[in-house]
Structures are given as structure tokens and as C-alpha cells.
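Q: Please design a sequence for this.
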């Protein structure tokens, strides 16, 4: 076979191939129109809100940013020679003092249930004590594993200090080291950057990284995250049948 014949054969094969491709593309049905996503209602719209910062403002963040850390000055109210007495509820859970209700409420992730457009309004008694809503009574109780005493983590004779299970004294802004005493695998993952929130530069030559402290996301007195209502599922195409009525849950 001479060169002209070989060239003609190659061109013929390419022509047939492109023709077949054109036919296949022409026969492919157009993508059906998408069903518009229904408007979100509360509290579903809250579940999709990603706060620009961390869930909480930890002591480390507050102190390092130069914020008002007067709420962490225990001895502005407490007598150092008289450590507070720990109180328990009927289920033997530690009850945090009502005088700390402002701190407790402010550190919770209120936007899980409350709209940021309608901030929580606290009510106070005549002596300036926060009135805890009936539905939130449990927020004032500690729910941190088997810790049944404030002094498991706090120094009884030095309230503005923490201590590890081994007795190493730590400042409030070193709370992550305290967490590491019981949550070793998680602390290892945090150090590796696969747990928690890390910001900064992948290339350390370009700049530093910042890892948020454990207490920037977890409330140390109740670290478990509460459930949130998931966002609606992906768009269904107009050709997909609606789910059976038996599978649709009604409120």
C-alpha cells in the first residue's frame, strides 16, 4: 500500500469515527430542567449557616486578642481562702452556679436553634441574675463524660488555674494541653491538622498556621455537639418520580 492509499484510509477511518461521535452526541437527550429548591424555613436555614469564626470564644482567643477577660478573673468575686462548694442535681450532675449564667449562655452555640437575625435576649432578676429559660435548665449542668467534680480540671485552691490528671498546672489559655490528658488520639490528630480548625499557609515558608484551641469549638463543660436539622437533599430532576407518600414525614 502506497502512501496516498494509507493516508486515504486513515482519513476515512477518522471521518467515520467523528461521524459516529456526532450522531451519539445528537441522540443524547438534553439535561432535564431542575426542580427549583423550595424556600428554606426555620430552623432549616440555620443548619446551612457557616459562622465566620469558631463556635465559641475560648479563653486563649480572648486573652491573646486583648479582649475583656475580666469574666475569667475568679477572685474578683470569690475569696481565695474559701473555695466554692460543688453542687449537684438529682442526677448527680454538677450544677454550674447561676451567677455564671451569662458566661454559660454566651459560650453556647445559640445559632444552632436561634436565628442570628433574632438574637437571644436575656432576662434578669432584680439582683441582676440571669433568668434561665425553663427549656434551657440543662445548660447549667455539666455534661462532660465521667467528670463529676469541677476540681477534676480546676485547681481548688487556685481557681484561675487548671491541672492535668498528672497534676501539671496550666493556665486557662493552655486548656488544649488539659484536654490532651484524656483525649490522646484526638490531640494527636489535632497536632497533625486533621481534627479541629486550622488556618494559615500549607507552605510554611510562605507563612505560619494557626490551630484553634479545643475550647474554641467545644464547651469544656458540655463538649458534645447537639444535633442540627440537615439541609434539604439535592435537586431532583423533573423526570424523577416523587417519593411515595409513606416515606414523607410530616411535622
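A: Design:
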Amino acid at each position: 500500500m502506497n502512501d496516498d492509499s494509507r493516508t486515504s484510509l486513515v482519513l476515512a477511518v477518522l471521518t467515520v469515527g467523528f461521524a459516529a461521535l456526532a450522531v451519539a452526541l445528537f441522540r443524547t437527550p438534553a439535561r432535564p430542567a431542575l426542580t427549583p429548591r423550595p424556600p428554606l424555613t426555620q430552623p432549616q436555614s440555620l443548619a446551612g449557616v457557616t459562622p465566620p469564626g469558631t463556635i465559641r470564644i475560648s479563653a486563649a482567643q480572648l486573652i491573646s486578642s486583648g479582649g475583656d477577660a475580666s469574666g475569667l478573673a475568679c477572685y474578683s468575686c470569690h475569696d481565695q481562702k474559701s473555695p466554692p462548694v460543688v453542687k449537684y442535681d438529682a442526677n448527680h450532675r454538677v450544677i454550674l452556679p447561676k451567677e455564671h449564667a451569662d458566661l454559660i449562655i454566651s459560650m453556647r452555640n445559640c445559632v444552632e436553634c436561634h436565628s442570628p437575625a433574632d438574637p437571644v435576649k436575656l432576662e434578669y432578676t432584680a439582683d441582676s441574675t440571669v433568668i434561665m429559660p425553663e427549656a434551657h435548665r440543662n445548660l447549667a449542668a455539666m455534661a462532660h463524660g465521667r467528670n463529676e467534680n469541677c476540681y477534676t480540671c480546676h485547681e481548688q485552691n487556685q481557681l484561675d488555674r487548671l491541672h492535668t490528671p498528672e497534676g501539671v498546672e496550666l493556665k486557662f489559655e493552655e486548656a488544649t494541653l488539659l484536654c490532651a490528658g484524656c483525649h490522646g488520639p484526638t490531640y494527636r490528630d489535632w497536632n497533625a491538622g486533621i481534627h479541629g480548625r486550622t488556618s494559615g499557609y500549607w507552605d510554611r515558608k510562605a507563612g505560619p498556621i494557626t490551630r484553634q484551641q479545643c475550647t474554641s469549638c467545644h464547651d469544656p463543660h458540655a463538649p458534645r455537639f447537639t444535633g442540627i436539622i440537615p439541609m434539604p437533599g439535592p435537586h431532583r430532576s423533573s423526570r424523577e418520580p416523587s417519593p411515595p407518600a409513606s416515606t414523607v414525614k410530616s411535622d
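Q: Thanks. Anything notable?
A: Confidence is low (pLDDT under 50) at residues 40-51, 246-251. Residues 44-216 form one domain.
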